[in-house]
């Protein structure tokens, strides 16, 4: 086992990795930005190194500084956590070239599955079910129309380098193909620097299921159960659980498919194979996450395994001490991600100071947190405060324990997703296990939250005598993230202060209702400002890289 590793991350995942290291008697080195000098993850480790950076975000992406810190402090390996550099094949390669050990999959495997088109080819070669689609980059919209003639509609036009719903557009009929193709290509180039697109059949309301894999070597991958991650907003997960409440009888098939794909790409260490399942339980490959997942905790709860310890043992060349036949599953586990976001405003980020903070406890309750009372949640990073995990003998006990834990959770100073979690946990389709990826945005949960917030508000906008909000889940039907703008007007305004990450339109450009215009970034969450009506862009009042205050007009449409 290693004697010392550097953890190239922050927040709850850094403190979680450090916890396992303490148990294994492995010393830890933290890295931190200016704003994280007094952060919990820094206090949780044996040593810490301040990293230079142009901005707080750049700090944790500074490859040269991270490698220098590891060498200076005598670390033998680097654990990337998730996010930041965790799926950066070039960084993994640089770590190895520096004589250090990368606690993750080989760079070659990461590259092979990082591009959606090449990953689809690998899945097909491995015999893994995929949604009918193309395996070569599209040249023009006519190819999409020809595909639709053969396979029918709706169709999803996707960026090859995409993820999280970015660069994804849906065409419900041939008339929508040209605009969907053009819009997907613009976003693909803006987000990923590549215009490569592919098309596949669109599954309107699927289950989002995923298989945890663990590979001590390329030829000996294991699967550790299936998770249901269907409750999402902006293609980002809110609640995860294992085993899945529906289609659990197909877990062994999904596990075998995930293992086959892992072997096909030479995968080593921990990872996740994500799939979509239709209403019949037929499952299809979606993508591979070449890292530890946020929701790895529910797998740990039902298997009794420490996945971080497994990662360290694999990277150190040690035996896992168990085989596939030794993996068993006990009870049911649920995880809720507690984010500093306001669900009544389309889950807009709410950075700020935690004036009060008390985590819940009790039988079957685990909290992986990254902050303490008095800490500042900076706007430069993601909005995840902590994760609450409950385990029970069955799903209902785990659900009830989660409700009790969230009701006991005390957070002051920032709005959180807890009210949304409580409503979702009591939502009929969730209790029945029939919820899908569309439940949050198409269900009545957010409307119920808005009704509460309207009743409590002193200053409410009324239109024709009725209280309204400037965001509604229906607005996000054709955009990858929350959509904001003036209610029915032509001036699109910033819903919160944020950095202008991308400007996707130019003056004189014709746009459709729901088309993405500007991307703001706050707390590492990208918020798409989309057109509230069709028209022509008359003014673009912001430029990329600048900061837009809340309420500032970004784009005007006539």
How would you portray this structure in words?
The structure is a single chain. With 558 residues, this protein is α+β, with helices and mostly antiparallel strands. The strands form 9 sheets. The protein has an 8-stranded antiparallel beta sheet with strand order 13-12-9-10-11-14-21-19, with helices on both faces. Strands 3-2-1-4-5 form a 5-stranded parallel beta sheet, sandwiched between helices. Helix 5 runs antiparallel to helix 6, helix 8 crosses helix 9 and helix 13 runs antiparallel to helix 14.
Protein topology:
Layout: E1 4-7, H1 11-23, E2 27-32, H2 40-43, E3 47-50, H3 56-59, H4 63-73, E4 77-79, H5 89-97, E5 101-102, H6 107-114, H7 116-125, H8 141-151, E6 155-163, E7 166-171, H9 177-192, E8 197-201, E9 207-215, E10 222-233, E11 236-242, H10 251-264, E12 269-277, E13 283-289, H11 296-303, H12 307-315, E14 332-339, E15 341-342, E16 348-349, E17 352-353, E18 356-358, E19 365-369, E20 376-377, E21 384-392, H13 395-408, E22 410-412, H14 418-425, H15 428-432, H16 439-442, H17 445-456, E23 462-463, E24 466-467, E25 483-484, E26 491-493, E27 498-503, E28 510-511, E29 516-522, E30 525-530, E31 535-540, E32 547-548, E33 553-557
Parallel strand pairs: 1-2, 1-4, 2-3, 4-5, 25-30
Antiparallel strand pairs: 6-7, 6-8, 9-10, 9-12, 10-11, 11-14, 12-13, 14-21, 15-16, 17-20, 18-22, 19-21, 23-24, 26-33, 27-29, 27-32, 28-31, 29-30, 31-33
Helix pairs in contact: 5-6, 8-9, 13-14, 14-17
């Amino acid at each position: 086992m290693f004697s010392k590793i550097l953890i190239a991350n922050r927040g709850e995942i850094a403190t979680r990795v450090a916890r396992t290291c303490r148990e294994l008697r492995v010393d830890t080195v933290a890295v931190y930005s200016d704003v994280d000098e007094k952060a919990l993850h820094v206090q949780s480790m044996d040593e810490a190194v301040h990293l230079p950076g142009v901005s707080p975000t750049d700090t944790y992406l500074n490859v040269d500084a991270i490698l220098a810190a590891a060498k200076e402090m005598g670390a033998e390996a680097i654990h990337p956590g998730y996010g930041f550099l965790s799926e950066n094949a070039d960084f993994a390669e640089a770590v190895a070239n520096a004589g250090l050990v990368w606690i993750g999959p080989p760079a070659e495997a990461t590259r092979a599955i990082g591009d959606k088109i090449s990953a689809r080819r690998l899945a097909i070669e491995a015999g893994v079910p995929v949604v009918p689609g193309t395996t070569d980059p599209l040249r023009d919209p006519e190819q999409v129309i020809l595909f639709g003639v053969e396979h029918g509609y709706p169709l999803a036009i996707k960026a090859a380098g995409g993820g999280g719903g970015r660069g994804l557009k849906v065409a419900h009929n041939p008339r929508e193909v040209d605009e969907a193709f053009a819009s997907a290509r613009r976003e693909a180039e803006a987000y990923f620097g590549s215009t490569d697109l592919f098309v596949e059949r669109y599954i309107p309301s699927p289950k989002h299921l995923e298989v945890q894999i663990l590979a001590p070597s390329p030829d000996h991958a294991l699967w550790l159960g299936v998770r249901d991650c269907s409750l999402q907003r902006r293609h980002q997960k809110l609640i995860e659980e294992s085993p899945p409440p529906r289609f659990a009888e197909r877990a062994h098939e999904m596990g075998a498919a995930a293992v086959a794909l892992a072997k096909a790409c030479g995968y080593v260490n921990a990872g996740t194979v994500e799939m979509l399942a239709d209403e019949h339980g037929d499952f299809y490959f979606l993508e591979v996450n070449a890292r530890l997942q946020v929701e790895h905790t529910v797998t740990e709860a039902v298997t009794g395994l420490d996945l971080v310890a497994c990662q360290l043992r694999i990277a150190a060349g040690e035996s896992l001490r168990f085989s596939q036949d030794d993996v068993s599953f006990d009870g049911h586990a649920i995880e809720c991600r507690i984010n500093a976001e306001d669900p009544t405003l389309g889950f807009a980020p709410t950075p700020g100071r935690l004036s009060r903070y008390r985590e819940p406890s009790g039988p079957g309750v685990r909290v992986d947190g990254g902050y303490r009372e008095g800490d500042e949640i900076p706007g430069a990073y993601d909005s995840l405060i902590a994760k609450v995990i409950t385990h029970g003998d069955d799903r209902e006990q785990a659900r009830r324990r989660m409700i009790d834990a969230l009701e006991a959770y005390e957070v002051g100073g920032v709005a959180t997703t807890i009210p949304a979690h409580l409503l979702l946990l009591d939502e009929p389709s969730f209790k029945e296990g029939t919820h899908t990826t569309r439940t949050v945005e198409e269900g009545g949960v957010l409307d119920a939250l808005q009704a509460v917030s309207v009743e409590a508000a002193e200053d409410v906008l009324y239109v024709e005598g009725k209280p309204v909000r400037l965001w509604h889940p229906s607005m996000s039907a054709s955009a990858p993230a929350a959509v904001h703008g003036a209610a029915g007007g032509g001036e699109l305004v910033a819903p919160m202060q944020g950095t202008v990450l991308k400007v996707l339109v130019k003056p004189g450009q014709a746009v459709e209702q729901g088309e993405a215009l500007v991307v703001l970034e706050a707390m590492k969450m990208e918020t798409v400002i989309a057109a509230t009506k069709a028209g022509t862009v008359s003014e673009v009042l912001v430029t990329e890289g600048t900061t837009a205050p809340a309420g500032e007009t970004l784009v005007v449409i006539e």
